[in-house]
Amino acid sequence: MRTDAQPRVAAGPDGRPPFAETAYGRRKLRQESAARAVFLAMTLLMVAPLVAIVAHLVVEAWPALSLEFLLDVPRNRMTEGGIWSALVGTIYLVAISLAVAAPIGVLAAVYLNEYAKDTWFNRIINLAVINLAGVPSIVHALFGLGAFVYAARFGFSVMAASLTLAIMTLPVIIASTREALAAVPTAFREACWNVGASRWQTIRGVVLPNSISGILTGIILQVSRAAGETAPVMFTGAVLYKAVERGSLFPYYLDDQCMALSMHLYVLTTQVPNVAHAIPYATAVVLLGSVLLVNAAAIGLRVWLRNRKRW
Amino acid sequence: MSAPAASPFAIETRALNLWYGSFQALKGVTVGIRHGQITSLIGPSGCGKTTLLRCFNRVNERYGEVRTTGDIEVLGRNIYAADVSLIELRRSVGMVFQRPNPLPLTVYENVVFALRLHTPGRQLTRPTLDEAVERALTETGLWKDLKDRLRTRATDLQLEQQQKLCIARLLPLRPDVILMDEPCSALDVEGTRAIEDLMAELRGRYTIVIVTHSMAQARRVSDECIFMLLGELVEHRRTAELFLVPQDRRTAEYIEGRYG
Q1: What is the fold, at CATH topology level, of the domain defined by B9-100+176-256?
Q2: How does pLDDT run across A184-234, given as a tens digit for each residue?
Q3: In chain A, where does DSSP find H-type helix?
Q4: Which among A188, A194, A201 has the least Cβ separation from residue B57?
């Protein structure tokens, strides 16, 4: 214990006033601004190509873009006209695939998150889900070809292509749903357990209502992924060209082949001679635009549902 | 309620051991907790008091892998018997937590939540539910403040009201035992006083077991007090005696504040 305490003088050991800047301190400040500059540069570097791509697409597509382009079918050996046949085909494929994948994925995720104990069997299932989410889409395509087109005898059809897309999106839906379920506070579950709620009552009464926004967002984000994939539909049900009536809402049966946007874009750019310059660009803009629209809807839904819950 | 008159104890354990994996959290705990009284569990962090509390309605098993040996009897019934329904057990032995955890529903729906869980929908008429809400909120002293706010979200209430609501939502089930895991540690002085007063109100009608970090609180509210250390029950006596003339050296040193 110091007994000879002196009032502190307003100078450090080397004669400088207290809190004065040091050489080392200045070096730290320089490092700080350098780090900040690097991070900012990387962020801009990431955004720049995106903006460039979108701008280029829109500029090149401009002459062809119109409501008529959406509603009309391809004409004159696909060198003119619109993209309705492909657009409605993609809507079919995505809607059916999610109608299959969403319930299975959500219910499986509920089982894995709320019921499954930590056994080797469940660990293997978990591992399988994670790995399935990383399988390249061409592999899903070949699986779909073998399983749905040939083995299940759906043939090249809307059904086979939709199921292939469903298999592809399923593991991601399971993963995102599990995340949403895990985000529900344990305190809510505890409240249920301690008044004698069964697991199902806990899930239905508390867990699902409080995770529905996250679950829906995860599902909707898979819409854009399913809409954008080419390989899985090319191998299982999408065709080069199919005659469809302009603006028709029910042009395909489940066992028909269909056109799809991603496939159509691939075909226009590689297989069709003398296509009007703006048409492939406009097709790309529609594909990109619908993906952005769906993602924006997902964000909007999430914000809306989140504002309704407060905890 | 359905207790056999023979035993003065609502809860009895004999040679209770509990392991989380390879870690033994409870070591040979033998204890009897009296009907209608308030019993407090004290001891330093990690002494097993919350674990013991969670044994009384077997909710421990929901938190992960646990292994237990020994007996636990609640109201004279071995709760590890094959024909014991965990749902019925937890209906009769409810729990209140450290942080108030009302569900993100209205006040009204929080109170009738448990009732809905245990009754087929058709049997729950509006008047039955209304009456249950009024009774539970009156019993917990919330009716006056909340009778015009039954439709507000429970999570928007003050913490003290939330915690009272968490007690109120157990009551429509007519529980026998209420377990409280540090029910006041998220509350300020006023809130703590209010919950302690409520506990005194409920005393006699319900058997209350409270885990607390505060020796002062144990002294204020409880009839009997249990001191635990490293998973063992060190001393269990009338609260007044335990704090005045502790028999065990470890208890004496703990209540003097030598460790903990």
Answers
A1: Rossmann fold (3.40.50)
A2: 999 999 999 888 899 999 999 999 988 988 899 899 889 888 988 889 999
A3: 23-61, 67-71, 84-110, 120-133, 137-144, 158-182, 186-193, 199-202, 212-228, 231-234, 261-270, 278-308
A4: A194
